[in-house]
Design brief:
Helix content is 77%, strand content 4%. By secondary structure, it is mostly helical. Helix 1 packs across helix 2, helix 2 runs antiparallel to helix 3 and helix 4 crosses helix 9.
């Protein structure tokens, strides 16, 4: 009971901090995810054993360039392509049964593009037509939270078929489908609050975020399993580290950003 209360309190503080930054100002939101990105990098660095602190300098440099200096579509698209290429390479790593040893250069690229790029594109998502779309980014957070919550509840009560036991023995196929269904229900209601997307676009976005978010969760689980650790950190009592909380969002963000841009182009 004490553990449940501790998890609930930590989760509530995390949600208030996240949504508070969204509704406070765009600068507060940007700053929060810059800090979250640094925290995730620190945890990733420790788990994959990256030496030195140059990944923090590289991350802050890329962050400064793309968030504060340039919004040139060509440069952003180049970063998006590089980030997605790294993410697809990591999916190959996730499903591979062979032992993979990353070089120092590969670890650096993964850190900057998988972790850093994910945080950068998550921060770019709410900027639509030079306005800060609060309900859009809030809706994406809600989709991830609804998926996580109901995947756990459905999996706990009805789960029989293991999803990927080699990496995450507790996840089930039933839980994953339950999370997806309830996320689509949440998307139905979000369509009434953020009308820049149609109902069908919200539901498609929910499906993409849930699928890629689940892959991101499994990817982090594989990194932790190889490092023989339970959590990426201990900064959030009852929840582990910042990377533990943001693994789904970080991986899903570039795919969500691409999807939203396709919606804008098609419209």
């Amino acid at each position: 009971m004490k553990e449940i209360l501790r998890r609930a309190l930590t989760g509530a503080i995390y949600v208030v901090l996240l949504l508070g930054s969204v509704f406070l100002s765009s600068d507060a939101f940007d700053f929060l995810f810059m800090i979250f990105g640094l925290a995730c990098l620190y945890e990733f660095k420790r788990i994959v054993r990256i030496q030195g602190y140059y990944i923090f300098v590289a991350y802050l440099a890329v962050w400064g360039i793309f968030i504060h200096i340039t919004q040139h579509p060509l440069l952003i698209n180049m970063l998006l392509v590089l980030t997605l290429l790294v993410n697809f390479a990591l999916l190959k790593f996730l499903f591979s049964i062979k032992k993979t040893e990353f070089t120092s250069v590969q670890k650096f690229v993964i850190a900057v593009l998988y972790i850093g790029g994910g945080c950068i594109f998550l921060t770019m998502i709410p900027y639509k037509n030079n306005e800060f779309a609060k309900f859009l980014i809030m809706g994406i957070f809600i989709l991830i939270w609804v998926n996580d919550t109901f995947a756990y509840l459905v999996g706990k009560s009805m789960g029989r078929t293991k999803l990927f036991p080699r990496v995450s023995p507790n996840k089930t196929v039933e839980g994953s489908f339950g999370g997806l269904i309830f996320a689509c229900v949440a998307a139905y209601f979000m369509a009434y609050f953020e009308t820049s997307l149609t109902l069908s676009q919200w539901i498609l976005l929910a499906a993409i975020i849930v699928v890629t978010g689940n892959l991101g969760d499994l990817l982090e689980s594989k990194f932790k399993r190889l490092a023989k650790v339970k959590d990426s950190g201990a900064i959030l009592p009852g929840h582990g580290g910042i990377w533990d909380r943001l693994d789904s969002l970080i991986f899903a963000a570039p795919f969500a950003y691409l999807t939203l841009n396709i919606f804008s182009y098609v419209s």
